[in-house]
Amino acid sequence: xxxxxxxxxxxxxxxxxxxxxxxxxxxxxxxxxxxxxxxxxxxxxxxxxxxxxxxxxxxxxxxxxxxxxxxxxxxxxxxxxxxxxxxxxxxxxxxxxxxxxxxxxxxxxxxxxxxxxxxxxxxxxxxxxxxxxxxxxxxxxxxxxxxxxxxxxxxxxxxxxxxxxxxxxxxxxxxxxxxxxxxxxxxxxxxxxxxxxxxxxxxxxxxxxxxxxxxxxxxxxxxxxxxxxxxxxxxxxxxxxxxxxxxxxxxxxxxxxxxxxxxxxxxxxxxxxx
Amino acid sequence: xxxxxxxxxxxxxxxxxxxxxxxxxxxxxxxxxxxxxxxxxxxxxxxxxxxxxxxxxxxxxxxxxxxxxxxxxxxxxxxxxxxxxxxxxxxxxxxxxxxxxxxxxxxxxxxxxxxxxxxxxxxxxxxxxxxxxxxxxxxxxxxxxxxxxxxxxxxxxxxxxxxxxxxxxxxxxxxxxxxxxxxxxxxxxxxxxxxxxxxxxxxxxxxxxxxxxxxxxxxxxxxxxxxxxxxxxxxxxxxxxxxxxxxxxxxxxxxxxxxxxxxxxxxxxxxxxxxxxxxxxxxxxxxxxxxxxxxxxxxxxxxxxxxxxxxxxxxxxxxxxxxxxxxxxxxxxxxxxxxxxxxxxxxxxxxxxxxxxxxx
Lengths: 274, 360
Ligand SMILES: Nc1ncnc2c1ncn2[C@@H]1O[C@H](COP(=O)(O)OP(=O)(O)O)[C@@H](O)[C@H]1O
Ligand SMILES: [Mg+2]
Fold this sequence. Notes:
The complex is a heterodimer.
Chain A: H1 3-22, E1 26-28, E2 31-33, H2 39-46, H3 48-82, H4 85-96, H5 103-114, H6 119-126, H7 141-165, H8 169-177, H9 182-210, H10 214-219, H11 227-237, H12 241-273
Antiparallel strand pairs in A: 1-2
Helix pairs in contact in A: 3-7, 3-9, 5-7, 7-9, 8-9, 9-12, 11-12
Chain B: E1 6-15, E2 18-28, E3 33-37, H1 44-52, E4 59-64, E5 67-68, E6 79-82, H2 94-98, H3 109-122, H4 138-150, E7 156-160, H5 168-185, E8 188-193, H6 196-202, E9 205-210, E10 213-218, H7 220-225, H8 230-235, E11 240-249, E12 252-257, E13 261-265, E14 276-282, E15 288-290, E16 299-310, E17 314-321, E18 328-333, E19 346-351, E20 357-359
Parallel strand pairs in B: 3-8, 3-9, 6-7, 7-8
Antiparallel strand pairs in B: 1-2, 1-4, 4-5, 9-10, 11-12, 11-14, 12-13, 14-20, 15-19, 16-17, 16-19, 17-18
Bound molecules: adenosine-5'-diphosphate and magnesium ion.
């Protein structure tokens, strides 16, 4: 077995296996009871709090994914189709500049923007558009969605941009030549051919988002907390590593199932579309 | 009597300072196999795209079947195009590609499927309808592109160097298939090519283009035998060019040609009543290398064989005629028992004045 395999084993397989093992054990005061049991899973499924957090995580991650892909697509499309070839690299470079700052700083900036006395509220108040500060934009799920959608924007723009760049422009002319308008050409040729990039973007955003805990903690308020916050609480506050591991494994399973579904669905729609 | 199916009137196209088309006048009849022939960069693709509606003419008019096409977008023109890269949709099957343009027609689904199958049969792709487009060979992709365009029964089919990406054998086969397909469907084909042989083989008429202008528009025979100028003559096949002096003498015309001497010529050989310094052109097949023992025939001159290129059925000799500084090319059929002559051999060359063409 070569060093790379050994490395992968040590860095990935061993920790994963350890976490997996923990899910079948229980915490007994300060020690771990290593009798195998499904009680953690039973509790995770039956406790309404866990279920709610799990559903909310999926829901928030889904909303973030949707928001990110929907905003990333027009940007990627614009750069790919309307920016002259020699300026494209520059545009992509400029798009990523805001993301050179630390993730934490950007989360704090959103607090400053979305806060009760934040930039957004003061501006809207000053312009007379609203009478009192908007409160639904910070310390709830909306704030989490906005912050995460912004944080993941470049990771969505890049794969979509690459997919659009790969589309042979003569295919679009061929579609026009065969009688389609700009709009129907977009629907029948551009979109299906960009689909791999869109699916990649969706998964790249969805997978890490569902397990994010910094953003919900900082801007989510009590209603914006996600499953990762609970995992952290289990490990660090409640000192219940087996329960934390169980929730982590369940979150992983959900991500795997949803990713597989998204992937299969995209395959299927591509066929039906045609 | 119906008018031309394609009429171009004074078509100009410029990209900034660059003039890709500098005034194209052209009429193409219904059912014609028409070729645009010229070197790379002369504006053939630009002209084709202007007809298709992908480029707007900077000046001039494009009429299709009598209708002015100004402001008519590509998707509403009665033309279809076979793209140079074929542009077969990679996410669709062969049948879906071919049926792509039928989606907008009123045709019911089962009928559409039958039309697609019949079209695939016609281009030699019968039974391949379910094949994924990305799994096709170059030749098959080309047939898909052809079927996809022809199924819409356009008034004009535009083909942009459709055969240039194919290997030689397949290209020759496709040349004949395309020609017979065109006769079957009776649709006007406009073929863009930089391959003079291809244009000569396939076309009813050829427009030879240089630098955004049509230099000559004629049948393949006329283009080959009566090129209007040196550029056309040299672009089509091989043309030997020799310095000449044309003189009127009494009622007749005579020409003094380097290496060949002075001969009487006819007025039809001298376009535009040219006199004085000129260039004489002779095709390689109008000159004959005489072997030892063969009697003189016609006019005979002498020279040295300097090069010899063997082509299987033919041998091309480079022969420097006495009194000239460059060799002329002479093509000779290789017959059984006829030896290939080596460079350095002294030889007689037979030629005939009727084969001469003169250019300014
Ligand atoms: N979109 C364009 N912008 C600028 N120049 C162009 C454009 N399209 C073609 N040209 C120029 O016009 C000339 C003719 O091009 P084209 O019609 O493609 O030639 P051909 O097909 O005969 O090889 C070329 O010199 C090419 O560089
Ligand atoms: Mg071209």
